[in-house]
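Figure caption, in words: inputs first, then the predicted bound structure.
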Amino acid sequence: MNLKELEALYLSRQSCREFTGEPLDDALVREICRVALLAPSACNAQPWHLIAATGAKKAEIVKAMQHLGMNKFASEAGAIVVVAEDKSGGIMKIGAAFKENEFVRNDLGILTAHLVLAAQAAGVGSCILGWRDEKELRSLLSLSDKVRIPEVVALGYPAKDYPVREKKRKPLSETFTLLSD
Ligand SMILES: Cc1cc2nc3c(=O)[nH]c(=O)nc-3n(C[C@H](O)[C@H](O)[C@H](O)COP(=O)(O)O)c2cc1C
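Bound structure (flavin mononucleotide present):
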């Protein structure tokens, strides 16, 4: 893949807020997650765990993303992937002594980016959902109070004729500086 092709993938990836409601095949969801989990992390600690739901649990998780009328579209997602911390690995314990914990949040964000791009490459739409009730999610998934869940990702097939929006991004002059000497 060259840079132009990668750019085309980035441009096609967008927050999809209208899914068809069609179920997503478990094997496809697993494959998207497997590829995303190739993401880099500080000290290669991989302080994460992806929990994907395609069945009854999905509906329960979705409710925890919809307080105050938010994220209604997520009800039609074919799968929900919860991006959770998992700091149980040995490297994390060693890393904690050197304050590597600070990087955990970054690592999970990088994983989330890999996840939505992997989904797009597989022809599956996505939306990162930061609006969530973490406490409720932890209870639904029987996770300890200490486990943070920074993001949840809704996956699904975009509705027919769902438009590819033009990317609205700050101009490069505001977000990029080149120091060449
Ligand atoms: C950490 C994070 C949390 C987000 N939370 C939500 C959310 O709860 N609901 C939603 O509809 N979109 C959510 N988004 C999507 C952003 O609004 C979206 O990425 C941004 O407007 C850029 O649009 P694009 O993804 O279509 O390029 C979130 C995005 C990120 C990165």
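Residues 14-15, 17, 71, 127-131, 151, 167 surround flavin mononucleotide (CB under 6 Å).
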